[in-house]
Amino acid sequence: MPFIDLESNLPESTFSEDFLKRLCSKTAAVLGKPEERMMLVVKPGLPMLMGGTCAPCVILSVSAIGVTDTAEKNKEHSANIFPFLTGELGLTEDRVMIRFYALEPHQVGKKGTVMSYL
């Protein structure tokens, strides 16, 4: 169950339902996870400073079990996600950051238990 959190100083109108669906599809494909298992949250309109400027920017956090646990995997994920974000949002690569978090099954709760028991 990957968790995708996008934080941005771009306005809410930038992030339509269609954009959310495309981002979900893209990240699911990149991570090799089914879309039905994805959890996506977008937080627009935040006061943000990146690289000394408040110009439009995005921070994407990707937390998942078994697919974000090595530098090699995350390098590949990054290479596949960056073009989507820059293309969809009209940002240059220096205005996009991605953070990867490796989760263990016992760190994700669902249906009153944790993933390691499902």
TrEMBL record:
Assigned keywords, A-Z: Acetylation, Cytoplasm, Lyase, Melanin biosynthesis
Record-level GO cellular component terms: cytoplasm; extracellular space
A GO BP annotation: melanin biosynthetic process
UniProt entry tagged with the keyword Protease: no
Pfam annotation, one family: MIF
Record localization: Cytoplasm
Predominant subcellular localization, coarse grouping: cytoplasm
Top-level EC class: lyase
Record EC number: 4.1.1.84
One Gene Ontology MF term: phenylpyruvate tautomerase activity
InterPro entries (alphabetical): Macrophage_inhib_fac, Tautomerase/MIF_sf
Keyword Flavoprotein applies: no
Subunit structure: Homotrimer.
Family membership noted in the UniProt record: Belongs to the MIF family.
Physiological role: Tautomerization of D-dopachrome with decarboxylation to give 5,6-dihydroxyindole (DHI).
Protein name, entry field: D-dopachrome decarboxylase
Taxonomic classification: Eukaryota, Metazoa, Chordata, Craniata, Vertebrata
